[in-house]
Amino acid sequence: MHDKTVTQLAAALDSGELSSRELTSHFLQRIEKADGKLNSFITVTAEQALNQAEAADQARAAGKASKLAGIPLALKDIFCTQGVKTTCGSKMLDNFIAPYDATVVEKLAAAGTISLGKTNMDEFAMGSSNENSHYGAVKNPWDLTAVPGGSSGGSAAAVAAGLVPAAMGTDTGGSIRQPAAFCGITGLKPTYGRVSRYGMIAYASSLDQAGPMARTAEDCALLLNVIAGHDLRDSTSVARGVPDYTETLNAPLSGLKIGLPREYFGDGLDPGVEQAVRDAIKVYESLGATVREVSLPHTHYAIPAYYVIAPAEASSNLSRFDGVRFGHRCKAPADLIDLYTRSRAEGFGEEVKRRILIGTHTLSEGFFDAYYTKAQKVRRLIRQDFLDAFEDVDVLMGPASPTPAFDLGAKKDPVSMYLQDIYTIAVNLAGIPGISVPAGFAGGRPVGLQILGTHFAEAQLLNVAHQFQQATDWHLKLPAFAEENA
């Protein structure tokens, strides 16, 4: 069952071939057997999952089940989950039990899905490798010496290893698409505002967006149908109707206009990654698409703009973690200032501290206009680059990451780590949707093809991705780890 897609498992549940309890038990057993080697989960909620499975089976027997009822999945440990530890991969929130459900969690539960637990992640979603977690690094199931990508690396690794058929992630600068690429799965970052951020612990509020991670674009479409939509509790949620994202999956691609940003195929791109991406483009041409080169001239400003805006917002958002109301508190503080300083110093990891300090500096008097305001102006130019490109083409394509997954511990320099997100960060600054799909291998490690669309073009992206997956089998490849732990 671990090699089946969400769509296939839903069909098996519908036909009565298996029950949700059987399915849930199967995946819980796989987690217990194999996750000690991967470290992809922080918390496993076995008892709760089996209770949910019983309820799903009863609903299905009564004819009251939704399409995804009884499907197990996992949640990145950034989503508040009532009664369950919600840590954000941090020491700061190691003892935090969420008193309510995030909207994404609420919607998935209402659809009858089964939460198997909370997946590991870079602390407060800050990182590109999943090595920054208080709970230790996650390993890539394709090669246990490699990183799975970050910050949603636990979700990506769990899906790739067949520990769960799908998982939720979040994407602030590529944190769904890059780990999906590194682990050989499909990951969708929706348009900013398409999915509610309520109950999703904030890193950078103007950039964060939740999205699905699964084997196929079809699975992601099913999940997006559930989690998308307006939420009055989230002021950044867009009041816009939600289409059925599965309706147009099989639309032909004849006449599709694909743009290849020249800035995505320059220096620093691994030759093996480039070859895999260009081979994928040829598949699209065989399906009737036309390809042309386009330019996104402000691309090289994306990383410096992001690393002003995101840390500034993080500095503001993380100021609430002070050792007073919830989270880690230092022992025997001498006074209030000592309580604040030691609680934060002990509770935050090195990368989080680095970004808080950068953000606090850029927001300080005398630097706000020089850095933060200027970065927001650059952000507007980056957004306009995409809008101009979409005047001439339907979608943009390129690599999700300049390299395949790198070795654990290989990126000692923070700047070299930040450069791993060079092709993904601009998408968050512009607020547009993007998807990464498996497109081959380089050096024995997966390569992701990134497909980008204009605002609220998720249906088109899913159609374009699905048609590629109908013509190729990269998404069906499983790491040896998944089979060895069957």
Shape by Cα distribution: globular
What fraction of residues sit in β-strands?
A: 5-15%
How confident overall, as mean pLDDT?
97
The string of secondary-structure elements, in order, is HHEHEHEHEHEEHEHEHHHHEHHEEHH
- Which spans of ≥5 residues are poorly predicted at pLDDT below 50? none
Derived structural class: alpha/beta
Helix percent reads 25-40%
Largest sheet: 11 strands, mixed
Report the total helices: 16
What's the count of strands?
11
Radius of gyration: 21 Å
Q: Between the first and last Cα atoms, what is the distance in angstroms? A: 9 Å
Spatial strand sequence of the major β-sheet: 1-3-2-4-6-5-10-11-9-7-8
Characterise the protein shown here.
- With 486 residues, this protein is of the alpha/beta class.
- It is 39% helix and 13% strand.
- It has 16 helices and 11 strands.
- An 11-stranded mixed beta sheet has the order 1-3-2-4-6-5-10-11-9-7-8, sandwiched between helices.
- Strand 7 (257-261), helix 8 (271-286) and strand 8 (290-294) form a beta-alpha-beta unit.
- Helix 5 (153-160) packs parallel to helix 6 and helix 9 (302-317) packs across helix 12 (368-389).
